[in-house]
Fold this protein.
Amino acid sequence: MEKDIIKLEVKTEEKNRLDLYLTKNLKNLSRSQIKKIIVAGYLKINGKTIREASKKISIGDSILVEIKNVEENKIVPQKLNFEIIHEDESIVLINKPPGLVVHPGAGNLDHTLVNGLLYLFQNNLSDLGGSLRPGIVHRIDKDTSGVIVVAKSNYCHSKLSSQFEKHTIKRKYEALIWGVLRPLNGKIENKIGRNNYNRQKMAVRINKGKKAITNYKTIKVFQNKNVPTISLVELTLETGRTHQIRVQMAHKGNPVLGDKIYGGQKLKFKNIDLELEKKIKSFNRQALHAKYLEFFHPKNGNVVKYQANQPEDLKNLIDILKKLSKT
């Protein structure tokens, strides 16, 4: 199928949602079709791929729309290995393993969490997020492990989304970071936006960006003559910005261990236990785990709490740090 590229230039101060602007200016497409194109990743604003239909646009924005029949990208159900923490008639809680992408995108249509959800639940998932994101209310990074809530109905999806938007959902993470946080317990509050030099990265910004708030406490500091200084920390999000924890830890000078993007990889060590060195060098992802979700159940309004066990790679690394720190 040939693709058509449509370029639009925002000439007036619209102060409007992206999907509403496109519906007004692309008369041959319905709002539903436009949303599917956006969610599938076939639209760019000022060169950046945008997947949020509610994105606000401004005068001077350059919009490129690739007109494709996104329905031709059929998501194939696949049997995948992940833990179901809880399931009822309204929601499913998943302990996502590291390395698993949450949902398909352009050029990445299989072996995602969504493929596995379709295998288990067929059409019994919400479709508010579009055909590529059935059931998906929120995401965590591919190489971050941990708990995700999935909606079975549009009603539950809407109720959960509202809680995320209002920051009433309690989310706790744990991470291994380099060094020691000062103070040991505290709150980080700053703004996060796109990195000026690499649009694939986020950065702490002075003026631009969105407010990002993380509360943290140090659980354990591992350090002796054979162990480089590494801290196990618990982090509670008040906001949910892209790469929030990873960016804020790196900004404080304590990047998440194994983080390839934000400086958490170390290749040279002095006086390190050889077994630990091997474990660290083979830990091929950021040592970050979404361990806890607390929210109001979308159907009955009761407070519910769910916890995800650490994956084996993170648990093994923490175990060896504990063992060596005792010697």
In short: The two ends are 65 Å apart (CA to CA).
